[in-house]
Amino acid sequence: MSLSPAPCSHTVSVQLPDLISSCTAFELRANRHCRSVSQASETWLRDVGLRLEWRGIKVGLWAALCYPGADLTQLRLTADFLSLLVFSQEHDDCGDENKVFDLISDRLSRVAYKSPAWYMRFHRSMRAYHDARQRLLDYTCIPDLETYIELRRDASGFRMMFHLIEYAGGLNVPERASSHPILKQLADQACNIMAWSEDTVSCAKGVTASSRPNLVTVLMKERKCSFGSALAYAGTLVKQSAEAFLASEREFAASVDPAMNVNDDTRRYVRGLRDCIAGTVNWLYETERYLGTKGNEVRAFGWVFVPVSD
């Protein structure tokens, strides 16, 4: 009987792409309720029995950077939602991660009562989130790039974050505006920037044969290139997507299509997409979820040691 050779593991030193520089066009703002909401949310998470190193993950900071204009109640719901999103992703192999969002169903129901159309969009995105994550988990081989990009947008959960822009800003974005090709394009491009940045930074935790599909591993297969080359190209894709977002934003601002309904609420929604991009990309270096306590060092120099198995 012949035995398959064990995977060869080694550590490589690579420089992460400068994601912050790629996103300098997006102003970083912070909510003044950050500290109080972070403390209240972390206490609630412990009380309901969700155990993670919440203080180091800094989800309250993430919410405060993505929803800088939210009031105390609005920011608390967004922080709790993002915490449940993180928990569901960290425990997506336990089979009951779908139920974790039930912990805020009563608060979401109150929002739904005021805006049924908004809740229908939010619920569709949540269903797409669970379906896409399951499809990625079910893959026995690395998917092609086009398939991965489509699934990753839904599997990131960021579409739900974008719906919360409307809630946190008290906006009323008409259905025909939210489904307009330009706004949908802006949301897709924002999703790409955030998800691909997360994929890039999360590589610092290691890349193995059993790792979930990631933009970098997909590029390694698609382009038949090394880990370092794929990482650099992922950074290029983030930069290109940021530039595409800015071009779409200019198109949005110049639009005279009545279906677009360019008004204060749609403008604030697009500003909210900008906040989510800036907040998420900067949070990736602040949270200990991916880089441990070395976030500031990596932000400054980019170098990380990555465990890789062939």
Describe the 3D structure.
The chain is mainly alpha-helical. 65% of the residues lie in helices and 5% in strands. It is built from 16 helices and two strands. A two-stranded antiparallel sheet has the order 1-2. Helix 11 (181-202) packs parallel to helix 14. 40% of the residues are buried.
How would you summarize this macromolecular structure in one to three sentences?
With 310 residues, this protein is mainly α. It has helices spanning 19-22, 34-47, 54-57, 59-66, 72-90, 105-114, 116-138, 145-155, 158-169, 175-178, 181-202, 215-223, 227-254, 264-286, 288-291, 295-301, and strands spanning 9-15, 303-309.
Order of strands in the sheet with most strands? 1-2
Instruction: Give the integer mean of the pLDDT values.
Output: 91
Low-confidence segments, given as residue ranges, are 1-6
Helix content: 55-70%
Gyration radius, rounded? 19 Å
Summarize the biggest pleated sheet. 2 strands, antiparallel
C-alpha end-to-end distance? 23 Å
